[in-house]
Amino acid sequence: MSLVTRFNVKDYISHHLTHFHIGTGFWSINIDSIFFSVILGITFLVIFHRVAKNATNGIPDKLQTAIELIIIFVDNSVRDMYYGQSKIISPLALTVFIWVFLMNLMDLLPIDFLPYIGEHVFHLPALRIVPTADVNITLSMALGVFLLILFYSIKIKGLYGFIKSLTVEPFKHPIFIPINFILESVSLLSKPISLSLRLFGNIYAGELIFILIAGLLPWWSQWILNIPWAIFHILIITLQAFIFMILTIIYLSMASEKH
To answer: What is the Cα–Cα distance from 162 to 154, expressed in whole angstroms?
Structure first.
């Protein structure tokens, strides 16, 4: 088996689900998730900046063509779903889509490759390389979107209008203000929670399947399940990045409505 014998499968799986972290309990910080998130974010910025700097009006190369197609796709999605006026929604949607996609894409690397290097070269006790399989990362991104929802809600409606939207809907009579506030608050708070847990759950499940295949099958037979699952997983990681982007646009569009 790959770095594992049938006698320590439990330890193997547990090791691959353990973060390289500092601190304990609530104050624990997953260094590996933050590191790979930052590296992938920088990679995204460097590639797009380089393509934008060297863009040509003539026949573009393959990388420029691919990026132009992505930008057009994201821009069209924003135009179809966001009805307000804002110069940052399209760049935000593009950033969310590419960044989440790159973090999800780490799940397709061989399950033992980077953890092996981390353990034997850098002497790390553990290493997880898929940031979106860490609920702290997905929740942090969702909280960023949540803060933008609050910002646009107050900016468009005003503070009084925002408070009014939480207290006079869906029932108009003043006696229902407490009920309205509870219902609307739950609806508002559920947005970042559902946004983060949906992405985390799907990517974590995909990572766990790769770990189970590596832990339970001999190394020479793992390709029988790894290749079909990896091909299917390409669809999942792309779809989850797309869903995160679309929900971000929709939530911000709802927050930008005056009524």
So the answer is: 6
Three-state SS at 250: helix
Biggest alpha carbon distance in the chain? Answer: 69
The residues, ordered by sequence, that sit 6+ positions from 54 with a Cβ below 8 Å of its Cβ are 64
Q: Which of 14, 190, 194, 221 is catalytic?
A: 194
- Among the listed residues 198, 221, 253, 256, the single catalytic one is 198
- Residue 165 among the catalytic residues: no
Write out pLDDT tens, residues 197-229.
999 999 999 999 999 998 888 878 888 999 999
pTM for the full model?
0.92
Is 202 assigned a catalytic role?
A: yes
Residue 36 has pLDDT above 90, yes or no: yes
Rounded CA separation 128/115 (Å): 7
Whether 6 is catalytic: no
CA 48 to the chain's CA centroid: 19
Contact in structure between 193 and 201 (CB atoms under 8 Å): no
Q: Which helix (H) or strand (E) holds 29?
A: strand 29-30
pLDDT of residue 259: 61
How far apart are alpha carbons 258 and 204 in whole angstroms?
38
Convert 125-157 into a string of H (helix), E (strand) and C (coil): CCCCCCHHHCHHHHHHHHHHHHHHHHHHHHHHH
For residue 21, give the H/E element and its range: strand 21-22
**Active-site hit among 104, 202, 226, 256:** 202
Alpha helix segments (H runs only) across 106-217? 113-120, 135-167, 177-216
